[in-house]
Amino acid sequence: MKKAVGKNRKLKEKVKEVDFTTPDVVVGKYAQRDPAIPKTRITLYLDNDVLAYFKRRAAQRHAAPYQTQVNNELRAVMERDTTGRASPYEALVNDEAFITAVAAKLATRSKEQARK
Q1: Which of 17, 33, 66, 90 has the fewest CB atoms within 10 Å, counting from its CB?
Q2: 58/66 Cα distance (integer angstroms)
């Protein structure tokens, strides 16, 4: 029993040092959740290589569990999506510099084809 008490004491010391401003914070092997952000248990099929990638990352020292890492990556994608849609091309279509560059490339290509 003394061994478990020692582990709990160490965990409590680590918790005092952790910044809880992010939704998931790793303390030891366990993620401490922000109770204001509810979680839902689901079944999700992932490609084997994707799962292996996150499990390798999670195996590194002081790394968050792989489920937390997957959640954080999905949250980052969600927060970057300012259009409300999941289209990866939406930002490019609205990027004037990109459209100008494509137009210049097409003009150059048209001139090259006209010479042939």
Answers
A1: 17
A2: 5
pLDDT in tens, the chain (116 residues): 445 555 566 666 655 554 444 555 555 555 566 778 888 999 999 999 999 999 999 999 999 999 999 999 998 888 887 666 656 677 788 889 999 999 999 999 888 888 87
Quick one: which of 70, 62, 71, 53 has its CA closest to 30?
62
Say what the pTM is. Answer: 0.46
Q: Are 11 and 28 within 8 A, CB to CB?
A: yes
Distance CA 9, CA 28 (A): 12
Name the phi and psi angles at 25, rounded to 5: -125, 130
Dist. CA 67–CA 82, nearest whole Å: 25
Residue type present at position 62: H
Domain boundaries, the chain: 2-80, 91-116
